[in-house]
Amino acid sequence: MTAITQNLPRFISDLGISIIGEKCYSSLVENLNVGDVDCLKYSLSKGLGIGIVVGGSIMKVPQLLLILSGRSARGLSLPAYVLETLAYAITAAYSYRNEFPFSTYGENLFLTIQNTIITLLIIYFPPPSLRNAEAIGPRLAIASAASVASVVALYIFPKDILSLLQMATLPLSLFSKLPQIMQNARAQSTGQLSAFAVISQIVGCLARLFTTATEVGDLIVTAGFALALVLNLVLGAQMWMYWGDDQKEDFGKTQIGSLSEKEKEEDWASERQGRVDVVVTPKSPVPRHTASPSGRKWARKVD
Fold first, then answer.
1. pLDDT on residue 175
2. Cβ neighbours around 273 below 10 Å, total
3. Global pTM?
4. Among 28, 30, 40, 150, which one is most buried in terms of CB atoms within 10 A?
5. For residues 165 and 117, what is the distance between their CA atoms, to the nearest angstrom?
6. φ/ψ bin of 244: left (φ > 0), alpha (ψ from -120 to 50), beta (otherwise)
7. Interacting residues of 88 by C-beta distance below 8 A, sequence separation 6+
8. Residue 84, class by beta-carbon neighbours within 10 Å (0-12 exposed, 13-18 middle, 19+ buried)?
């Protein structure tokens, strides 16, 4: 068997070496040394990392499709997505500046892009109580400018400041999930929240704990993934509890017998608008005995 594994095509061996390194490729592939625990763990970490990066590139796509198909961002918390996007962006910038392997943080880059689009869609499809067509354009412009400024700032910040910002992702992760969790609890519904995205984040956090401990060993990053796992588990529990429940909306709905007298009058007045009332005068009852047209009275003459 080793005669085959040691003579694999060049493009296959180059790909394997680029992923797991020459040492582990030689040990696991060429020599079939399955007892090399360190290389097994490293290879498993690399495989999980690549899978997470690929999954992260499409993780929020179902959420985007839900918003676009329903033309509504009902149930999604704007503060939660703003803070979550900032946490993803800081982690991506911190990992890139510290030259961590791309397989250990690549999904944060894709999630930052997808979350930014979702945040803009939440602004574009606000709830009816906050809907103001004239204010949507300026809000989108401000949000877009803030996104670009954040990217530039994270790119030019010194590493020391980035380290502090990475520590700040711990409370950011907490506060990014709390608004969504509280909104779900108040509405007794998860609205347009995507089950695929929540489940993917739970699986991704579990895998990231393993890959970070194996390849990076950064305690700050590990703590961030651990906290994110706990909060995503809470969201997953809410998805299970409120599955199939629609958020109760009051638009155009009233309960029988719950209208006040004033509301009844206003409702009756609105119903009468555009109607034409036709009044028909009732006819007087016709008497049994009527006078003749000439007005004379006739009587029988008695002989």
1. 80
2. 6
3. 0.66
4. 28
5. 23
6. left
7. 108, 111, 112, 115
8. buried
CB atoms within 10 A of CB 108: 23
Name 148's Cβ contacts closer than 8 Å, sequence gap at least 6.
none
3-state secondary structure the chain: CHHHHCCCCHHHHHHHHHHHHHHHHHHHHHCCCCCCHHHHHHHHHHHHHHHHHHHHCCCCHHHHHHHHHHCCCCCCCHHHHHHHHHHHHHHHHHHHHCCCCHHHCHHHHHHHHHHHHHHHHHHHCCCHHHCCHHHHHHHHHHHHHHHHHHHHHHHHCCHHHHHHHHHHHHHHHHHHHHHHHHHHHHHCCCCCCCHHHHHHHHHHHHHHHHHHHHHHCCHHHHHHHHHHHHHHHHHHHHHHHCCCCCCCCCCCCCCCCCCCHHHHHHHHHHHHCCCCCCCCCCCCCCCCCCCCCCCCCCCCCCC
Cα R_g (the chain), whole angstroms? 35
What CA–CA distances, in Å, run from 238 to 60, 68, 127, 191, 198?
18, 23, 22, 11, 10
User: pLDDT per residue over 241-270, tens digit each?
Assistant: 888 665 444 444 444 444 455 555 555 555
